[in-house]
Amino acid sequence: MYFPVYHTAFDSYNWMTNYGDPLFQRHVAVAGVWGLLALHLADDAILPFNYVSYAEQLQNYTNHLHTLVKGSVYLDPIIASIQEFASAAEEAEEEAMKLREEESNSEFLVLKKRTLNDRLILAERSFLDADGLQGRPWFKHLVYGPPGDSESKLVFFPGIADAISASTRMKRKEGEAAIQHEIWRVARAIERASSALRGGIFTEKWS
Fold first, then answer.
1. How does DSSP assign 42-89, residue by residue?
2. What backbone torsions phi and psi does residue 181 show, to the nearest 5 degrees?
3. Which residue, among 86, 84, 82, has the nearest Cα to 94 in the 3D structure?
4. Quick one: how far is CA 147 from the chain centroid?
5. CB 87 within 8 A of CB 193
6. pTM metric for this prediction
7. pLDDT tens across 114-149, in order?
8. Which residues of the chain have pLDDT under 50?
């Protein structure tokens, strides 16, 4: 039986040693995963960021979102931006594979790898929005983040999830407009990520 003790008075060493993870095997496993990830991020010549799978996941999220939106709300902006992002991701992955196969240690090759790494980093940062989520500006990521409504059927696109929940308390047109606004925000973030992967420059003020 699941007992929600996390961040409660019962979230103690005693509870963990008796019920949660008595032999601390899960702790060791998670520490190993994070440690291995840290080593790859620190030592790999090219960052292990796979945006091809990222694009596939975004498409899966959008397919699920399609089952929840109604009325005049349309997902075309996100669909189009994901298609462009998937193409940019394929290009970046091919470039990374070619650079990994290079055996030279020339300064030019090192610079090319560094440039690709910068683009990979900027692509992930592109999903951040300086204004944050409406009513929760400390959450900046437009793809991943907790929804404001614990009963929300979306565990991704938090801004859209919040808008869908808020729309139930609005007039129909106002609610649909609020959802559409958040859809456009996500679409623009994905477009920024595509631009970053291709070496484009976008101007954005980050908080």
1. HH-SS----HHHHHHHHHHHHHHHHTT--TT---HHHHHHHHHHHHHH
2. -60, -45
3. 86
4. 14
5. no
6. 0.84
7. 999 999 999 999 999 999 999 999 999 999 999 888
8. 1-2, 203, 205-207
